[in-house]
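Support case: user asked for a sample of complex input and structure output to validate their parser. Sending the pair below.
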Amino acid sequence: MARHELIEGYLARLAEEVRWRDDADDVLAEARDHLSTAVERAVAGGTDPEVAQREALLAFGDPPVVARALATTRRGVALPTTTTRSAGRTALFGAAAWIAFPLAWWAGTALEDRDVVAGPVAYTIAVGALAAAVVVILVTLDGLFVRHGGSGLAGKVAKGLAAAAVFATFLAWFMPGWGLLIGSASALTAAALWRERLAPRWGLAALGVGWLGGIATFAVLRALEVGPVDEWGDYPAAVNGGLTVGCGLTAVGLLILGRWLAGEVPVDLPTEGTVAA
Amino acid sequence: MRGQELKGHLDLLLLTVLADRPLHGYAVIEELRARSGDAFDLPEGTVYPALHRLQAAGCLDSEWAVVDGRRRRTYRLTEKGRHELVDRRRRWDEFADAITATLGGTPWPVTS
């Protein structure tokens, strides 16, 4: 057996447990130094190298116990859990809903004058997809904050805005209303979590810019009076531009963040042995 | 003494151990063990989060060096940490005095 084979195996397991930390290299370097020092001193005192490694590892604690204790050094307990994984899977569903919504909406717009059944059905699907998509945003934001150790004030405000957006979707046609609420909630979340350097930044950027970008696109095209005016006095090109940007970026953000959250192995750990202030 | 019983007191112990001189993690734990007469039984790996937390709070500072080909982090008490130690030590003494005074006049319970 190689001299420190057991320690290397332990460090590999610990690396797996702390892979989500931005200071994982430092954590592993500190553990390696501790364990190696303990083994060297024991061996110098006449202990068999393999026995010394076993004793050092026993005294250090199991990787999950150490990882959980390390997680308490952040705000709350920032760990991938079954809750965050579920939020990630839901986000993937949400990405599909954000794509389905504008497609169904455009189908409804195209069919409403031609087919008295297909048009309303498409609109109904669109409204359902929008409601589902906004609920998913709420679940995803909650999962992201849980993954970062808790909500805090920013998280509570963001989730409150997203919850208000759920009710605002009853007025599905009023995109500036629910779009602004979702955009504010998403942007606030992305800004709050950006500096933690845990979540994929492209995902946070897309989600954070998504609906504020959509509303900005709508506002600019509307102000420039781009395209024809419809029977309601709206500018369809402005609405469609806003939908494309808002739904597209939000879907991309949810896809990236959802894959990240869903792809992490949950770490639901025992608490015995954990020392936390 | 198990980890749960140490909960809340570990920070005071770590600040105390580091008050004399800077130490790396293993030496901190060795010092804890030596001073307590091996009374503290907790996974050694869980001491590091407490050190990190104290550093994040500004009570400790640390620096890295390469020793025997390995990266080693050494912790030292900051001025804020010294004040924190004084404050925690004072509170501990008050607490311990109160407990001792309460128990002092009571005879040991008889067990079968």
